Amino acid sequence: MREPRTKWFALFLVTAVLAWVAWAGVGAGEGQSGVNPWSPYVLAPTALLTGAVAGTLLCRLSVRVLIGLTVAVTLLLFFGAMWSLAPGIDPLGYPNANAALAIQVIGMSGAVLAEAPVRFRPLLYTCSGLALATVVANSSRVGLAVAVPTLLTGLLAARIPRPSALLRWTLALLATAVTAAGSLAVLTVVRTGGAGWLRLIIARDPVRLRLWQDALSLWEASPRTGAGPGAFAATSPLAADPDTASAHSLLLQVGAETGWVGVWLLAASFLLGLAWLVTARTAAALPAIAAWVALAVHSLVDHLVEFLPVSLLAGVVLGLAGHLPYCSEEFDVAHREPPGPWLR
């Protein structure tokens, strides 16, 4: 099977991510001389790109090794959630970040499931189920709302060996629409002071709403360039507590600290990630698209990408889904074996 020409989208994605880092470092914020190399603005994109490279390389391994890695990560998350002294704290120390990581595991399981030989599918179904149970154990409402479609997309991909371009682009456009609607909903809640039914869905916590309002005020004070990385923690009255040192919204944090330029570069990175997956023309791309948009939507209402394992695994899913069927002859067998009774 010949690998499709996705290299241009990969190049554009890397360029957009690096441009975002460069803007945070030298462009955002008046009078800013640079960004701390240990800042999330540097570490999170580095983890994402490293994961994408790792995912591309992982697909060259034996299918058994790849499935074994999926099982190992799933069990680490599941038992961390079940056995922690403080439920939901392990392994990342924050329940919603654990849920976000588990959703990427669902995406990874779905990507491998879509291309793996039939005899391995029950094991991958189990991984997806345990990862979903991890989301539930961490009591993440938004996480659960985006985890279920990710899991269902993985199950669908297992039934469609070669998804059509129409299906892939439809899913990508739907993902874009959902993310845009979520962004608009968050901005609406903040601008209206949390009034109305939207607050009951996405902003029940008054502390989180206050953080969002502080971030929006900072953004409005310098809409184009933002106030510079780290400005939110330096200005928000609630930032003295480490648990509230971030805006708990990627959109508002980036807007407040890097302005509209940073927001548009972030949006470009998201869209190019979708384009990379769509042009891969693989069934594995379907759950990867779902996991990618799940992280984007979940990040609208919480701080997640600065947890490096989350960004790293999101990159792994991107790289893996784009190359999985082209790197190992073992995966070609998946489409020559008859489906088992669980797929009939």
UniProtKB/TrEMBL annotation:
Where do the TM regions start and end? 40-58, 65-86, 92-113, 120-136, 170-190, 259-277, 307-326
Q: Locate the O-antigen ligase-related domain: which residues?
A: 130-266
Pfam families documented for this protein: Wzy_C
* Entry GO terms, CC: membrane
Q: Which UniProt keywords apply?
A: Membrane, Transmembrane, Transmembrane helix
Q: How does it sit in the membrane?
A: Multi-pass membrane protein
Q: Where located?
A: Membrane
Recorded protein name is O-antigen ligase-related domain-containing protein
